[in-house]
Design brief:
Number of helices: 5
InterPro entries: DNA_methylase_N6_adenine_CS (IPR002052), RNA_MeTrfase_RsmD (IPR004398), SAM-dependent_MTases_sf (IPR029063)
Radius of gyration: 15 Å
EC number: 2.1.1.171
Region (Disordered): 1-21
Distance between the termini: 33 Å
Keywords: Methyltransferase, Transferase
Protein name: 16S rRNA (Guanine(966)-N(2))-methyltransferase
Shape: globular
CATH architecture: 3-Layer(aba) Sandwich
CATH topology: Rossmann fold
CATH superfamily: Vaccinia Virus protein VP39
Length: 183
């Protein structure tokens, strides 16, 4: 795994040890950023199930201002912190250990609005639609937010969630990427 492009391009990232996470492959990551970017002019990133942090690190490398990465697994948090160290830009990342549903309640009190969000929950724990409705209800997303969801190929997400419209669906074997964009 590596950062593909931008300020941190070429830097190696570690995967989370063990079998509890599924790292996004470099090929899928590159395709995601070819679809949504490839480069950005600022904004905040929210990563609800961050794993190794690779997607958020890539987004910041390509021009997002900063990222908030949430994971409840100790090994993932340790790996994210190590991967953030590789960027030499720690101040652009907020790493939070805990349940994402509880953390977003806390984030709502800060007044931040995220213009990009990544959802790559464990395939067995599919709550993306509910999570997005909660983010909208808490006013945590900008009106033109881009949402990137990585799900099992069998998962069907709706065409519309609140003011977010599904704009792309791409299949990669057993994985499917679904992208939503605000109106």
């Amino acid at each position: 795994m590596r950062v593909i492009s931008g300020d941190f391009g070429g830097r190696r990232l570690k995967p989370v040890p063990g079998m509890k996470t599924r790292p996004t492959t470099d090929k899928i990551k590159e395709n995601i950023f070819n679809i949504i970017g490839p480069y950005f002019d600022g904004g905040l990133v929210l990563d609800m199930y961050a794993g190794s942090g690779g997607l958020s690190i890539e987004a910041v490398s390509r021009g997002m201002d900063s990222a908030t990465l949430i994971d409840k697994q100790f090994a993932a948090i340790k790996t994210i912190k190590e991967n953030v160290e590789v960027t030499k830009a720690k101040d652009r990342f907020e790493v939070i250990k805990g349940d994402s549903k509880k953390i977003i309640q806390m984030l709502a009190t800060k007044g931040n609005k995220y213009s990009m969000a990544f959802f790559d929950p464990p395939y067995a724990l599919q709550t993306i639609e509910k999570d997005l409705q909660e983010l909208i209800g808490l006013n945590l997303l900008t009106s033109d937010a881009i949402i990137i969801c990585e799900v099992s190929d069998e998962v069907e997400l709706p065409e519309k969630i609140g003011y977010l419209n599904r704009v792309r669906e791409q299949h990669y074997g057993i994985t499917k990427i679904v992208i939503y964009k605000g109106e």
